[in-house]
């Protein structure tokens, strides 16, 4: 699994961090998404897919 | 009127009058007429308070599409915008740009000035403080007269304490802004009352901003004060943005605490599940289901089409109003099977109680943690909590309130 985030689209809702905190974080200065792991391990795949699904700005893309 | 016009006008009588009236025997559910719209189509024409007939988007999937479409604008100064009430129709054209009425790059610029204090991790760090405030307020309630009004004892003070601490607004002044915040969410306010409340609250916040320009501290007001000095934002813009945070942080979480408690007390088996767990995941899931079920921003999200949009078999023409009826999306059986079943174990995180798209609620992580703490604490600490009056005596807010709720919740234990 490969994860791609779009910082320009991100609106800092924090949904991805809530869904998969080992994979996503937010920048301190404005809350914009920080990708911690662009190739997350299989056991986090469900959480990451969930994070992409709940992102209100559609800023997370998953390439399987 | 010509025959052709009569023919066109006739179906108008059938239009759903949004937001509709809830069934008073079932005050937690969205109006039956609104829910029924999804049986026919996910988007249809509806009618508003002023007789205008914007598009009503009721389907969950359709709401996601519309709220993600950059051709759909939040510019409430444009003619044809479906305002929620008379006061907002009159006053919105005079407001500066905010996160509510800006699109595209303007919206991004403004939102990013406001997001830093509300990140998930910053909110998570506030959890111990939220827990402490909650415990203290419950202690105080239990030590005071029984029965008590949960609104006054817990629902209003907790979010108020938190948003004051975050913004750097003295909590001693909370009666002043609770009154104005409460007015802001009322639909029966006059344009005059709305302006007067804005001026009072605006003057107060302008004073605080100016003070923090001289003596900054570690809070949101000081952050905006710094941005004014740096020329990133004007004083009137900063006042409006701080006002939005102050108002939004008050009524919404408060309503969720009171209304959520009433809902749980009416569903003892669900309350027992919640009370019986110490698993934070179960509590967090319950919060999402209560958010879905109640969808307190019942007036929905308001938009206007900036271009013609072909969508679900209709053409939304440029300049036509669009109302995204959030309660209907959250009760759409295609997204939530048997939506009328209140089930704190169901998968509900995809709800639209915080809306969807770039305007999704900025304070949602704060709201979530406040609700997780309250729902995870109150019923365990006060296991005998129950209504002190008959359920049918509860006074629910008007159907056209910006945040649905109950005026007071008399409880005993």
List the helices and strands and how they pair.
The complex is a heterodimer of chains A (64) and B (413).
Chain A: E1 2-5, H1 15-19, E2 24-26, E3 33-35, H2 45-54, E4 60-63
Antiparallel strand pairs in A: 1-4, 2-3
Chain B: H1 3-9, E1 16-17, H2 32-40, E2 43-47, E3 55-57, H3 60-67, E4 72-73, H4 86-91, H5 104-114, H6 120-125, H7 127-143, E5 148-149, H8 150-155, H9 157-167, H10 174-184, H11 191-214, H12 220-229, H13 235-266, H14 268-275, H15 280-294, E6 301-305, E7 309-311, E8 314-316, E9 321-324, H16 326-330, H17 364-381, E10 386-387, E11 410-412
Parallel strand pairs in B: 1-2, 3-9
Antiparallel strand pairs in B: 2-3, 4-6, 5-11, 6-9, 7-8, 10-11
Helix pairs in contact in B: 7-9, 7-17, 9-13, 10-11, 10-13, 11-12, 11-13, 13-17, 15-17
Task: Describe the overall structure.
The complex is a heterodimer of chains A (64) and B (413). Chain A has a single domain, classed as Alpha-Beta Plaits (2-Layer Sandwich), CATH 3.30.70.20. Chain A has helices at residues 15-19, 45-54; strands at residues 2-5, 24-26, 33-35, 60-63. Chain A has a two-stranded antiparallel sheet with strand order 1-4. A two-stranded antiparallel sheet of chain A has the order 2-3. Chain A has 2 helices and 4 strands; from the N terminus they run E-H-E-E-H-E. In chain A, strand 2 (24-26) and strand 3 form a beta hairpin. The model of chain B is unreliable at 1-10 (pLDDT under 50). Chain B has one domain: Cytochrome p450, CATH 1.10.630. Chain B has a 6-stranded mixed sheet with strand order 1-2-3-9-6-4. A 3-stranded antiparallel sheet of chain B has the order 5-11-10. In chain B, strands 7-8 form a two-stranded antiparallel ribbon. Chain B is an alpha+beta fold and 413 residues long. At the A-B interface, helix 1 and helix 2 of A face helix 5, helix 6 and helix 17 of B.
